[in-house]
Amino acid sequence: MKKAVVLLSGGLDSTTALYWAKAKGYQCHCLIFDYGQRHRREIESAKKIAQKAGVSFDVIAIKLGWTGRSALLDLDVKLPNIPLEKIGQGPIPSTYVPGRNTLFTAYAISAADALGAEAIVLGPNVLDYSGYPDCRPEYYQAFRRVARLGTKRGVEGKSLKILTPLIKMTKAQIVKLGAQLGVPWELTWSCYAGGARPCGQCDSCKLRAKGFEKAKIQDLIYA
Ligand SMILES: [Zn+2]
User: 119 forms bridges with which residues in the sheet?
Assistant: First the structure.
């Protein structure tokens, strides 16, 4: 069976990407990162999702010695409340974590080379997003070259694909796809704040709400 390494954060995009990979016939192994994020809720969500999906996973602890004053790493930096129509339009917001996807994708390349996986599956997208530079198609295009040049698989001429199936999809399209694939929305967690309920004010909550509203699908996290 063909294998894939999937980066799973516990949010709706990476969970949809996991279910997409399963539907494509990949045997999936998820990487879940404990990188000192603001709350542990998303790590717990990711673990539950992997278990529900019946896939193996590793939780990888990364200790960053620097933060860049990110609202996702420094509890004293307030989460921004940006109007929905301005999300992704202005300067890079304080929720940006410096180089996060570069770190995660590098781990995925290592895991794929070690486990004999022919693909890495990730859930970035650039239509309804916060404007992070490490979500863009050209960034992943560069990483495809890195995967080819920097791995045993690549040198031996075996493929190591970096698949970003959601990259040009709107949040509503992602929600529709996730619904078709049977994504357990109630287990996913998108909110940048911790808490028992999503805050409804952060970029991630607003984009998620917009997606479900436009897709005309009920978000079971609020059920
Ligand atoms: Zn929120």
Answer: 4, 161
